[in-house]
Amino acid sequence: AQTVTQSQPEMSVQEAETVTLSCTYDTSENNYYLFWYKQPPSRQMILVIRQEAYKQQNATENRFSVNFQKAAKSFSLKISDSQLGDTAMYFCAFMKRRGGSEKLVFGKGTKLTVNP
Amino acid sequence: NAGVTQTPKFRILKIGQSMTLQCAQDMNHNYMYWYRQDPGMGLKLIYYSVGAGITDKGEVPNGYNVSRSTTEDFPLRLELAAPSQTSVYFCASSYPEGEGAFFGQGTRLTVV
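^ inputs. structure came back:
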């Protein structure tokens, strides 16, 4: 079974600075997807960024980028130029590629606070 | 485009009562999921479905039932509610090819 581990329960960063959230996962699969989701106080789950395991290039979405290390099974999220609106819970998630069990498995989350 | 719609948003149940949480999506997604989120925790998978007529258990299925008679709808049934089922419930849907799941707004359920 796949597991996702987020080792930082809480983090804080000053506005405009950069912060990196960690995620590691355990799987015997070779083809899969990885995601970061944001959950602000409104409770809505918002997809931030996705990475396909067969692509070596790290995904980027504006101020959000990932450092995907497949051999190390590591998938960290970097937020640049942090904004107050980035304050939220961040969840790392894993999904097998088609043909496997397409369950989306989540880590326990990291609570990020951006301070003014 | 409504996306994933969950009803109700809030509900208080008494111990032993039953209820159905409704979930509908209008994106023609094959995959649908039910998760629960306990305070300060991540999301735990209750049940999921890969298409109409097909459902499977997730990590924490006890006390719940689901059905998937159409592509659009995936209701979650709670029988004999217990305080341990107090949680926030999320429905989600996705395409098979890892585009990421779209989530509903969640249902906050309290069992007293």
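The radius of gyration of chain B is 13 Å. Chain B is about 0% helix and 50% strand.
thumbs up if we can close this ticket
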